[in-house]
């Protein structure tokens, strides 16, 4: 488990040493090893329960503990599973655009991002989680700003301030918790944080959860996401939408069912309301987006909304937890697929407006198929992972008589269908004859097929749903 | 009112001012300063609250050392990006929808 | 309007927080006790250094990664065509800087050594060295950096790599970063020494990379 953190830190440093633009193969081979390690870890967790590691040999609360249960193991598997195809995509992407300044230090930044994500998913110490949050956040911001013009730098600055506000609030929360309880270890805190906790503990919880919601771009804190995800280089957009926003959501979930479990019942309605609004608001903007990547970015805002619907539904039956986990996993693969597919379309046609992708279907069949498959997950069509996630969500909602949520889930699915078909319809149209001789580049097989692999994975998640649910349950 | 508690209360004031600054101010450099104010506030709370009984506690002190380094890293990145933004646009304020 | 709302919210929040702080009992857990009890095996005799490099050394490892990441990030957003940074080539200032630098280096080495038994350590020492570099640059004796070459890159990553190497080497006998008590002091000193150099380079780099000045013309 430790190697999942040590390896990426190692190759991030090595790729710095290797120099500008180098390091693709180092990264890809290391990520392959990490994917295998994540599989092994998931097997171990399923067989024997939560895997713990007391760093330094001291044990909490003096030292820092790492703890990987089913949920963490699933997230670790997800992170390596998305990162590897995206890395392969990125290598080809930057090779084709040899002048793109974003490719100069992409590999070290990717290494630090993955190291931070893995460290975040494995950590059981609130302050350590703060450091991992910063590692992930700063790497993400740098990736957005890389090689961009003024819009990218502006989007990155907006993102930076949002993420710093979020982690600042989180840090103040940690400071308050330490002041009240004298420890920041989640395991030690869990029995201590009861309903009779002092007011400061409640405020701390509020701060930490709000800060993390800002980082997850929950409505109304979503303003920074569309420019950042929509404007960044394609591999970066894929990583951000698929993994980075899931990391802060994972942390919210972890705090919600962990240390703060006793305190959060009363406010569970709030994230759900905001989530429902996000689903509608995000989908609406996706329908009206002019640029292809902006459409995909707004879709992320909408799909994140689904995640927040689980909070009022959490209970002993764990259905809502399974729903949240499935949604995280399938959306990550689907969104990465959608962004990489969109990147291929933009690269090949040289245009990035939705209205101008006419006719690409004949030239980029694999890419369009990938886009369509990814859309299946977003819409919630069987047998995709997205279908399973929404099914579980509806099941959990019905068990508590929450018909309003069922309506939101179904409406969101319809809207997702609308904006997905908006793109597909355009792509299958023939371009007006006068424009057929537009300047284009050849499609590149690696780019198309990695997009396809990601999309296929999002559908496969549905087919292997039972195993994922079993993994999520492990270690509890 | 012990010394530690006084630090903590000051920290709260600084944090609140810092957050208000990041949200309300338009000038990028001043927003970065406000962020640093916010960070310093959080650090003061971390150390002050833990030491409200006037006894030194090494754990929050070490945490604050780590926090300072992280804040330096973030500030450096923010400044570099502000520099680049200014070089590209000649402006020191982000335009467009800029709420929060 | 927005100004008023945000200010009101911030003030209200601060007031609530202050009130909650004033009525707080003692903490449930006192970490000073285990810190003190295990100090003998930690390899250093200063409690904060022990926490920073032993008990919570994992945080320190990640924070070094954050710093290195920041440097790479700064490299990413700066390119060669940026604005030149003015410096002053006044001979008095240059002499002062020349006098100060060896002193600052000695202070840095002292801080590194002293970290084991009083406030000090790699970060403090690295900062002083970086400050010396910035000082030399401001008076025109040290040129700004362009994209770092191999020797410089080696210096930049050496700290993190050494820390990582020692940390993972400990996996053979136990947990990550679990120093054997007999070697703890030596290992910590090793890590801190290499870290000082790297941190100095990283911190200096964060300033010098943003400056396009090439030195006295």
What does this structure look like?
- The complex is a heterotrimer of chains A (476), B (100) and C (217).
- Chain A is mostly helical and 476 residues long.
- Chain A has a domain at 268-476.
- Chain A has helices at residues 3-18, 24-48, 70-96, 106-122, 126-145, 150-181, 186-189, 199-215, 225-231, 234-257, 269-288, 292-308, 319-349, 360-363, 365-379, 385-399, 403-428, 445-463, 465-473; strands at residues 51-55, 64-68.
- In chain A, a hairpin with an 8-residue loop joins strand 1 and strand 2 (64-68).
- In chain A, helix 3 (70-96) packs antiparallel against helix 18.
- Chain B has 100 residues and is mainly α.
- Chain B has a single domain, classed as Helix Hairpins (Orthogonal Bundle).
- Chain B is built from three helices and no strands.
- Chain B has helices at 3-24, 28-50, 58-89.
- The longest helix of chain B has 32 residues, at 58-89.
- Chain C has 217 residues and is mostly helical.
- Chain C has one domain (43-208).
- Chain C contains nine helices and no strands.
Q: Total number of helical segments of chain A?
A: 19
For this structure, the CATH topology of chain B is Helix Hairpins
Low-pLDDT stretches of chain A: none
Tell me, briefly, the overall form of chain B: elongated
Total domains of chain B:
1
Task: Give the SSE layout.
The complex is a heterotrimer of chains A (476), B (100) and C (217).
Chain A: H1 3-18, H2 24-48, E1 51-55, E2 64-68, H3 70-96, H4 106-122, H5 126-145, H6 150-181, H7 186-189, H8 199-215, H9 225-231, H10 234-257, H11 269-288, H12 292-308, H13 319-349, H14 360-363, H15 365-379, H16 385-399, H17 403-428, H18 445-463, H19 465-473
Antiparallel strand pairs in A: 1-2
Chain B: H1 3-24, H2 28-50, H3 58-89
Helix pairs in contact in B: 1-2, 2-3
Chain C: H1 2-22, H2 32-37, H3 39-42, H4 47-55, H5 57-77, H6 91-114, H7 122-138, H8 150-169, H9 184-208
What's the short version?
With 100 residues, chain B is mostly helical. Helix content of chain B is 77%, strand content 0%. Chain B has one domain: Helix Hairpins, CATH 1.10.287.
């Amino acid at each position: 488990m430790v190697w999942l953190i040590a390896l990426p830190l190692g190759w991030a440093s090595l790729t710095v040493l290797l120099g500008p633009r180098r390091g693709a193969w180092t990264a890809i081979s290391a990520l392959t090893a990490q994917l295998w390690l994540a599989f092994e870890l998931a097997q171990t967790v399923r067989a024997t329960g939560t895997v713990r590691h007391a760093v330094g040999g001291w044990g909490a609360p003096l030292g820092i503990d790492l703890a990987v249960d089913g949920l963490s193991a699933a997230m670790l598997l997800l992170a390596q599973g998305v990162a590897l195809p995206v890395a392969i995509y990125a290598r080809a992407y930057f090779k084709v655009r040899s002048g793109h300044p974003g490719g100069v230090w992409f590999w070290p930044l990717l290494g630090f991002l993955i190291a931070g994500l893995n460290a975040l998913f494995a950590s059981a110490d609130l302050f350590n989680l703060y450091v991992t949050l910063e590692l992930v956040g700063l790497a993400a911001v740098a990736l957005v700003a890389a090689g961009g013009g003024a819009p990218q730098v502006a989007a990155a600055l907006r993102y930076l301030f949002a993420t710093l506000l979020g982690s600042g609030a989180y840090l103040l929360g940690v400071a308050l918790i330490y002041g009240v309880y004298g420890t920041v270890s989640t395991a030690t805190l869990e029995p201590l944080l009861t309903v009779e906790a002092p007011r400061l503990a409640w405020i701390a919880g509020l701060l930490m959860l709000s800060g993390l919601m800002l980082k997850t771009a929950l409505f109304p804190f979503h303003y920074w996401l569309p420019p950042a995800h929509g404007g960044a280089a394609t591999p970066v957009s894929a990583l951000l939408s698929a993994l980075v926003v899931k990391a802060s959501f994972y942390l919210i979930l972890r705090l919600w069912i962990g240390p703060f479990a006793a305190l959060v019942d009363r406010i569970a309605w709030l994230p759900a309301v905001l989530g429902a609004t996000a689903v509608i608001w995000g989908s609406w903007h996706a329908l009206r987006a002019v640029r292809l990547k902006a459409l995909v970015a707004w879709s992320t805002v909408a799909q994140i909304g689904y995640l927040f619907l689980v909070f009022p539904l959490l209970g002993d039956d764990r259905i809502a937890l399974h729903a949240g986990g499935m949604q995280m996993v399938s959306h990550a693969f689907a969104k990465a697929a959608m962004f990489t597919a969109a990147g291929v379309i933009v690269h090949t046609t040289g245009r990035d407006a939705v209205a101008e992708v006419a006719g690409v279907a004949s030239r980029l069949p694999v890419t369009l198929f990938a886009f369509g498959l990814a859309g299946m997950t977003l819409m919630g069509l069987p047998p995709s992972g997205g279908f399973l996630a929404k099914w579980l969500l509806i099941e959990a909602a019905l068990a508590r008589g929450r018909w309003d949520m069922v309506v939101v889930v179904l409406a969101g699915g319809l809207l997702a269908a609308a904006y997905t078909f908006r793109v597909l319809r355009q792509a299958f149209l023939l371009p007006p004859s006068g424009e057929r001789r537009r300047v284009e580049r050849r499609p590149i097989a690696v780019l198309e097929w990695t997009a396809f692999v990601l999309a296929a994975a999002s559908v496969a998640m549905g087919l292997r749903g039972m195993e994922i649910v079993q993994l999520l349950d492990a270690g509890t | 009112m012990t010394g530690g508690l006084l630090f903590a209360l000051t920290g709260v004031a600084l944090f609140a001012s810092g957050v208000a600054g990041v949200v309300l101010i338009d000038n990028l450099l001043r927003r970065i300063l406000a962020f640093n104010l916010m960070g310093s506030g959080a650090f003061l709370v971390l150390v002050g609250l833990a030491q409200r009984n006037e006894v030194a506690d090494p754990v929050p002190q070490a945490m604050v050392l780590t926090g300072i380094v992280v804040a330096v890293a973030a500030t450096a990145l923010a400044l570099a990006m502000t520099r680049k933004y200014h070089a590209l646009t000649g402006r020191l304020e982000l335009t467009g929808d800029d709420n929060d | 309007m927005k100004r008023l709302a945000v200010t009101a919210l911030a003030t209200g929040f601060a007031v609530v927080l202050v009130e909650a702080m004033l009525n707080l009992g003692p903490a449930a857990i006192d970490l000073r006790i285990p810190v003190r009890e295990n100090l003998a095996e930690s390899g250093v005799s200063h409690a904060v250094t022990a926490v920073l490099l032993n008990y919570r050394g994992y945080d320190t490892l990640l924070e070094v990664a954050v710093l290195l990441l920041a440097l790479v990030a700064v490299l990413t957003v700066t390119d060669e065509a940026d604005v030149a940074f003015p410096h002053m080539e006044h001979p008095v200032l240059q002499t002062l800087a020349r006098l100060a630098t060896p002193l600052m280096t000695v202070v840095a080495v002292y801080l590194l050594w002293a970290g084991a038994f009083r406030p000090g350590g790699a970060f403090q020492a690295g900062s002083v060295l970086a400050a010396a570099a910035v000082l030399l640059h401001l008076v025109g004796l040290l040129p700004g950096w362009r994209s770092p070459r191999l020797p410089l890159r080696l210096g930049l990553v050496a700290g993190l790599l050494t820390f990582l190497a020692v940390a993972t080497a400990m996996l053979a006998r136990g947990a990550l970063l679990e120093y054997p008590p007999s070697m703890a002091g030596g290992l910590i000193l090793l890590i801190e020494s290499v870290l000082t150099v790297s941190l100095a380079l990283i911190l200096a780099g964060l300033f010098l990379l943003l400056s396009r000045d090439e030195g006295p013309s």
